[in-house]
Amino acid sequence: MTTTSLFTHTPHPSPKTAEERAVAMQNPGFGKVFTDHMVVMTWTEEKGWHKGEVKARAPFAIDPAASVLHYAQEIFEGMKAYRTKDGIVLFRPDQNASRMALSAERMAMPAIPEDLFIQAVEELVRVDADWVPEGDGSLYLRPFMFASENFLGVRPSLEYIFCVIASPVGAYFKGGYQAVTVWTSEHYTRAAPGGTGAAKCGGNYASSLVAQAEATKNGCDQVVFLDAVEHRWIEELGGMNVCFVMDDNTLVTPPLGGTILPGITRNSILTLAKEAGMKVEERPYSFEEWKNDAQSGKLRETFACGTAAVVAGIGTVRYRGGEFAIGNSGDGEVTAKLRAKLVGIQRGEVEDTHGWVRTVSL
Ligand code: PLP
Ligand code: COI
């Protein structure tokens, strides 16, 4: 065992061989294959964050009374490491760190200092660097934190575990970068004003699953949520933000107002769109407008954006009363251009003029 900085290192006694790893990474899909190690850290009131460990990925032994199992005090992040010609890089990890802190605050959990969060993520990327795919793939990183105190009363836990795991991934959607079909949920909503919509907490996803199942039953890839008050305004997808491209070179996207996740991809795309000369409007956009604009041709394209899915064109929209197509139902021109720019920056092929890319020292 060696110690560097805050983290002790206990290497996996029998990591996957290069051959086993190559087989596992051949066609990894999304979130099914995991690397050899994990990073774990503990928080107590007395000691704060301590006991940082880099060790073999293994199950946790948690008590049946651990409060996460009862009251779902859990938050997470999603980010990727890319293999570029200059080494392995992370994309805007400071943004994941600060969003994790905001999620923690909303869920009455202790914040992780941003530099400690980034250090923990980099520890895992370093130890499992061989798992960062070449080519189109990337290493999806999942930092998360949960309440680990054994106590059944309802109050914030006094103990937490923070962990980072990693999974080599390909495209999120089965069809790769083909335009996807989405289901608009008229009944189920994701987040109400004053709720937890802007936090990346597991509970938001638990409550979205029944709507996602409805989407799947209707042959759709993802669910689109409308607002919880009027069931009228488009909010976001189950795991992505959404943007609309108009015929006058305007990009419209729902505003951040506490009920949707402030996506890092969304923020990056808005910046790139402005730089490309587009007018960007963060404003409420209703399902009715979406349908009418798609039919009149005022709306040219719609795309979903997020770390897992990157930028995915939406070709068809289904809802209880029918369906409508967007543009030519395929991947739109602006969608493809913005995706190429973003992916180019992430992969070190387009100049990073914003300081978004951070190289991990190996
Ligand atoms: N909205 C939801 C509900 C998400 O789960 C995600 C993915 O993390 C996003 C939006 C996009 O966020 P980001 O671009 O930071 O990955
Ligand atoms: C991500 O993009 O990181 C998410 O958490 C969304 C989920 C669909 C995997």
UniProtKB/TrEMBL annotation:
GO annotation, biological process: isoleucine biosynthetic process; L-leucine biosynthetic process; L-valine biosynthetic process
InterPro entries linked: Aminotrans_IV (IPR001544), Aminotransferase-like (IPR036038), B_amino_transII (IPR005786), BCAT-like_C (IPR043132), BCAT-like_N (IPR043131), BCAT_family (IPR033939)
Domain of life: Bacteria
Catalysed reactions, as listed in the record: L-leucine + 2-oxoglutarate = 4-methyl-2-oxopentanoate + L-glutamate; L-valine + 2-oxoglutarate = 3-methyl-2-oxobutanoate + L-glutamate; L-isoleucine + 2-oxoglutarate = (S)-3-methyl-2-oxopentanoate + L-glutamate
UniProt-listed Enzyme Commission number(s): 2.6.1.42
GO MF annotations, alphabetized: branched-chain-amino-acid transaminase activity
UniProt key word Repeat: no
Alphabetical keyword list: Amino-acid biosynthesis, Aminotransferase, Branched-chain amino acid biosynthesis, Pyridoxal phosphate, Transferase
Pathway involvement of the protein, from the record: Amino-acid biosynthesis; L-valine biosynthesis; L-valine from pyruvate: step 4/4; Amino-acid biosynthesis; L-isoleucine biosynthesis; L-isoleucine from 2-oxobutanoate: step 4/4; Amino-acid biosynthesis; L-leucine biosynthesis; L-leucine from 3-methyl-2-oxobutanoate: step 4/4
EC top class named in words: transferase
Transmembrane listed as a keyword: no
Modified positions (N6-(pyridoxal phosphate)lysine) in chain numbering: K200
Cofactor(s) the protein requires to work: pyridoxal 5'-phosphate
Family: Belongs to the class-IV pyridoxal-phosphate-dependent aminotransferase family.
Protein role: Acts on leucine, isoleucine and valine.
Official protein name in the record: Probable branched-chain-amino-acid aminotransferase
Species whose genome carries this gene: Paenochrobactrum gallinarii
